[in-house]
Amino acid sequence: MKFYCSENTVHSWVTVPKNLCGWNQNIHGGIISTILDEVMGWAGIYFLKKITLTKKITVEFKKAAYVGDELKASASVVKINGKREAVLEACIYNCKGELCAKADGTFTLISADVGKKLNIVNEEQVQTFFEPLINS
């Protein structure tokens, strides 16, 4: 997934391949959940300048999404709970702009240094992915 930012939202467009479908060309719910989790995580990284670790995610499926269709995933920060936790929300829309799924997630926030100490990220990942975002 590639991510793009607007004023307060991170977006991504994704087309899910056929091998990840459930019944009748529907995208499997686990894949939808993964997309929502990923876009929320990157919204947290971009806007909060911290590495995000999913603590809890709740997904509500509203309408079927189909393999081969381009989907738009969007996420934003809802609330910051102190220095170490944030609540984010995300939505997935189909190619007609209809809401297919939405999620709320609670994320633990850690610095890049803590991420390295916990072996969550390595130095190359910090330099390649996180430092450019954190310093932007």
Walkthrough of the structure:
This protein has helices at residues 29-48, 112-117, 123-134; strands at residues 4-5, 10-15, 51-61, 70-81, 85-93, 99-110. The chain is of the alpha+beta class and 136 residues long. It has one domain (4-134): Hotdog Thioesterase (Thiol Ester Dehydrase, Chain A, Roll). It has a six-stranded antiparallel sheet. A hairpin with a 4-residue loop joins strand 1 (4-5) and strand 2 (10-15). The two termini are 20 Å apart.
Throw out a few tags for this protein.
six-stranded antiparallel sheet; elongated; 136 residues; 3 helices; alpha+beta; single chain; 38% strand; 28% helix; Thiol Ester Dehydrase, Chain A
